[in-house]
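4.2 Preliminary Data

To establish feasibility before requesting continued support, the project team ran the inverse folding procedure on a target of 560 residues. The structure was first converted into the token representation described in Section 3, and no sequence information of any kind was made available to the design step. The complete token record follows.
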């Protein structure tokens, strides 16, 4: 297997609005990030992924870009960004920018021109269609609820927006548009950035006829995803992007790809095909969702998680490369989701970290994950800021008369704002995030859960993450070794073997709050030599391979 620096790296995602505020306006900013770079360096981070900091009216927290070459005023100015890049590089870390090119803001100059007239030179930078029988051009629904089409009076046509109506989709069929995007990407790369995370990049190729989707009973609009996820020209577009831009730089690339499966991901990440290095799959993030999607809550079945992660581990092995993540700015906090944030927060956070970081792939840590930050339960929908969450509440409670308590329970479990509460730096007012009023309320548990406390405590979640990162740098088997699932049908234990030509690792994790017996199956050949890491003190130095795991216990044995 080819060795690459990006395979051996650990990535840390910063959501700037919620990370650290340097000027007291309640909004995190670039200077605030610079203040905390030593914290990230001490953690052992190699690459910082910066969520969007471009000029934006902030309809979707920066994922609606109005100028790709300007910095959002709330975050600072370009000189601040230049200083951030220099300070990151000075500390031996790299900076990956968020690339959002499925759509722009409706306040982008391209769209302002596009909507002026049907023969405007920028008209075909976006996807415009006439209505049908006084209705939208098709029945697709937006990812944020309602129709995916917005009527525009000026030209008596509709434009497509798979997300908010202030996020019109770009028309990638237009070669002039693609050229502009590639030039913009080169502009950033020439400034010295080290890669791109690409937002919903597998949505950029739509089936040109934009057919209707199949409507579920009782719903007004249908999912059109089969006509825009992994569309007809997606591989052509990404190979062109690679040829024109990516191949000319030594960078890291990862594509966010809702709805991608292993077979499709092989095409995206196969090094022989020259597209991307990694994808973000959503399959494991959908395992606690019922048939009606994300807000339809159901408990996680561990056997489903094992089957899914194992499928990706073996499926991409030797062909592509996995990204490993539990959290990001769109997902609830993993310790509240698959762990136990009430009685075993520290133990379950360490267990989940062990399970993920011992897999093959590049691990991504989301801000606050390394100190075990949890989901939040705001008293009122008025406290939420996320457009998806607010739209859901309006749709269900106001329009459909759903029971508010039930809707709020879904929001408590799955709202994107769970990930967006301010980073908890210390036990001072507003958790040390700002000297002013934070843009979104701080999680009230900051007195107990904060970075200052975690750094001081030897056995904290933070120091456990530090050790996991160090181990990955010391043992190449963690990066490159083969993967083999053990006990596939066990509904409490997730155990697997990592194998290289000279050694093996045995990873054992208990996903439950109950003590559970572990015995190595007879057909698994493994002889333990030492314990590499564990989240409980293990007194027995004889290293037997039949024992009782404590609640949320994790152990990693090194052996042959």
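Position-by-position output of the design step:
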């Amino acid at each position: 297997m080819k060795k690459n620096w990006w395979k051996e790296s650990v990535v840390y995602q910063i959501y700037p609005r919620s990370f650290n505020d340097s000027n007291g306006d309640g909004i995190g900013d670039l200077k605030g990030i610079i203040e905390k770079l030593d914290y990230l360096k001490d953690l052992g981070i190699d690459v910082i992924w910066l969520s969007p900091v471009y000029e934006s009216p902030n309809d979707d927290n920066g994922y609606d870009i109005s100028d790709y070459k300007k910095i959002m005023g709330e975050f600072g100015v370009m000189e601040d960004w230049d200083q951030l890049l220099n300070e990151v590089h000075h500390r031996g870390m790299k900076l990956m920018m968020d690339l959002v090119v499925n759509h722009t803001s409706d306040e982008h100059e391209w769209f302002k021109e596009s909507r002026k007239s049907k023969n405007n030179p920028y008209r075909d930078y976006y996807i415009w269609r006439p209505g049908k029988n006084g209705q939208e051009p098709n029945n697709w629904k937006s990812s944020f609820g309602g129709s995916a089409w917005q009527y525009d009076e000026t030209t008596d046509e509709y434009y497509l927006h798979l997300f908010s109506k202030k996020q019109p989709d770009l028309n990638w069929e237009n070669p002039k548009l693609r050229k502009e995007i590639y030039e913009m990407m080169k502009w950033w790369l020439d400034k010295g950035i080290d890669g791109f995370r690409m937002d919903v990049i597998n949505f950029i190729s739509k089936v040109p006829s934009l057919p209707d989707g199949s409507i579920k009973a009782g719903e007004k609009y249908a999912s059109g995803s089969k006509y825009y996820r992994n569309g007809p020209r997606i591989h052509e577009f990404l190979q062109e992007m690679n040829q024109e831009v990516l191949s000319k730089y030594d960078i890291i690339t990862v594509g966010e790809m809702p709805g991608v499966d292993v077979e499709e991901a092989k095409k995206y990440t196969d090094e022989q095909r020259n597209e991307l290095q990694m994808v973000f799959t959503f399959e494991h993030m959908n395992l606690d969702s019922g048939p009606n999607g994300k807000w339809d809550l159901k408990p996680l079945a561990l056997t489903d998680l094992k089957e899914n992660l194992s499928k990706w581990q073996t499926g991409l092995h030797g062909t592509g490369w996995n990204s490993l993540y539990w959290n990001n700015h769109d997902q609830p906090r993993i310790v509240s989701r698959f762990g136990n944030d009430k009685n075993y927060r520290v133990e379950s956070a360490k267990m989940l970290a062990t399970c993920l970081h011992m897999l093959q792939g590049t691990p991504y840590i989301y801000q606050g994950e390394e100190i075990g930050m949890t989901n939040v339960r705001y008293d009122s929908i008025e406290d939420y800021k996320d457009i998806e969450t607010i739209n859901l509440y309006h749709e269900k409670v106001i329009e459909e008369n759903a029971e508010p308590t039930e809707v709020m329970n879904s929001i408590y479990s799955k709202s994107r704002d769970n990930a967006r509460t301010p980073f908890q730096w210390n036990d001072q007012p507003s958790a040390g995030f700002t000297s002013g009023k934070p843009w979104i309320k701080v999680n009230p548990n900051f007195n107990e859960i904060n970075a200052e406390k975690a750094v001081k405590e030897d056995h904290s979640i933070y120091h456990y993450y530090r050790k996991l990162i160090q181990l990955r740098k010391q043992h190449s088997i963690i990066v490159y070794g083969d993967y083999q699932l053990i006990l596939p049908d066990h509904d409490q234990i997730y155990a697997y073997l990592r194998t290289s030509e000279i050694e093996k690792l045995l990873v054992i994790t208990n996903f439950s709050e109950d003590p559970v017996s572990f015995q190595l199956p007879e057909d698994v050949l493994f002889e333990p030599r030492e314990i590499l890491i564990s989240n409980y003190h293990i007194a027995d130095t004889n290293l037997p391979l039949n024992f009782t795991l404590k609640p949320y216990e994790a152990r990693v044995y090194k052996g042959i």
